[in-house]
Amino acid sequence: MSNLAYSLPSAGACLGLSLRLGAHDGVIAEARSDTLAGFAARGTAFAERVFGAFPFSRELPGWLYALRPGPSPAATPAARGGEARPLALQRLPSQEHYARAVAATAAQVADPKQPLRKAVLARALDLRTDRALDPFAVAERLGSDPHVTAYCLPLPGTGPAARWLVGATPELLLRKTGAEIRSHPLAGSARRSEDAAEDGRARAALVGSEKDNVEHRVVVEYIHDILAPHCAQLSVPERPQLDRTASMWHLGTCIRGTLRDADTPCLALLAALHPTPAVAGAPLPEALRAIAAAEPFERDFYAGTLGWTDAANDGEWHVTLRCAMIEGRAARLFAGAGIVAASVPEDEVAETRAKFIAMRRALGIAETL
C-alpha cells in the first residue's frame, strides 16, 4: 500500500512510522501543538523533519510530530478480533435540513447586494459500531485506490480511547521542493458509475457544467492571487483537467510556480493558502458565517491540512478530505459540496452522498443504513 503516506503504529507510544513518509523513515519524537499561523510566525527552521495535521479552523491548534533520522522500529499490527459491525448511523444535519441550507446559501450568492461568491457546506455521519474500529484496517481499504493519498494519524486527546484521523484525499494543497511549488486544487464533482456509458455521460456533463466551472474558477483565482506575489513565474492552465478517484470525477487544475526566494517558509505559504475556497468558500469571512449557520457540528480536522516539512524547508501538504475521526467504537464521517448561485439542493445532497461512498465502504456501512 505505497500510497498510505502518513501513519504511526501507536497513538500512545508514537514510536515510528509503520509505512513510508515521503522517501524517509525515522524515529518519532514528541508532538508539538500550535495553530498553523503560530508555527508559521515563529519560523520554520526545524532541525528535523516534522509531520502532522492542522484543523479546518485557523484558530484551533494542530499537531506536528518530530521525525529524526534513524531506523524505524517495525510496527506490530493491531490484534483483530473480527471486523467492527455498524449498529447505528445518525445524519448531521438531516438531508432535508441540508437541502434547505443549500437553497438559502445559493440565494445569498445570487443576490448582487451580498459579497458571498461561494460557500462549502458539509454534512456529517455519526457511526456507532459493536466493537472498537481498527483505524489501520480502514486506511488500508481506502489506500486500495491509486488516485488518492491515504492517511492514518493519531491525535493526542484526553478521552479513554485514542483519536485517529483516517482518510483518503485526492487533493494536493501545496508541495514545495526548493524554489519550485505546486498546488492541485479540486472543485466541481460528479459521481462515477460502474456502467461505462453512464460514467462517460457523468464525465462529459461535469466538463460542460457552467455551475461546476464557476465553482472551480473561484478556487483557482484565489490560489493564484495568494501565490503570485511570492513567485517569479506562476503557471495556471486556462481550463481544468479531469481528475478521478474510484467513486468520483473532479475538476482539477495543476498550478506550478517558481518562488522569487527559495527560502520562503513552506509553512508561511501553507498558512496563507489554508483554507482555500475549495473547502471554505469566498470571501472567507462571509463563507465562514454561512458554514457556521448551516453545520450543526465542528469540522475538527475535516477540510484541514495534513503533511510534512523538513530542515531544507521543503514540504508536502494535502487537504484532509474523504475522512473520518475515529475514536473507539465511534466514527464521524464528513463530506461537503461547494454552493454557488446555480446550485440545486437535491444535486448537492446527491454529491455529498457520493463523497461518502469511499469511507462508507471502508467502514462497511451499507447504502441502506
Automatic annotation (TrEMBL):
Q: Which reaction does it catalyse?
A: chorismate = isochorismate
Q: Would you tell me the protein name for this molecule?
A: isochorismate synthase
- Chorismate-utilising enzyme C-terminal domain residues: 95-355
The top of its lineage is: Bacteria, Pseudomonadati, Pseudomonadota, Alphaproteobacteria, Rhodobacterales
InterPro entries xref list: ADC_synthase, Chorismate_C, IsoChor_synthase
Q: Name one GO biological process term.
A: salicylic acid biosynthetic process
The lineage's top-level taxon is Bacteria
- PANTHER family, per the entry: ISOCHORISMATE SYNTHASE ENTC (PTHR42839)
EC number of this enzyme: 5.4.4.2
Taking the record's annotation, the residue ranges forming a coiled coil are none
Looking at its record, which EC class is this enzyme?
Answer: isomerase
From which residue to which does the signal peptide run?
none
**Keywords on this record?**
Isomerase
Q: Into which family does the record put it?
A: Belongs to the isochorismate synthase family.
Entry GO MF terms: isochorismate synthase activity
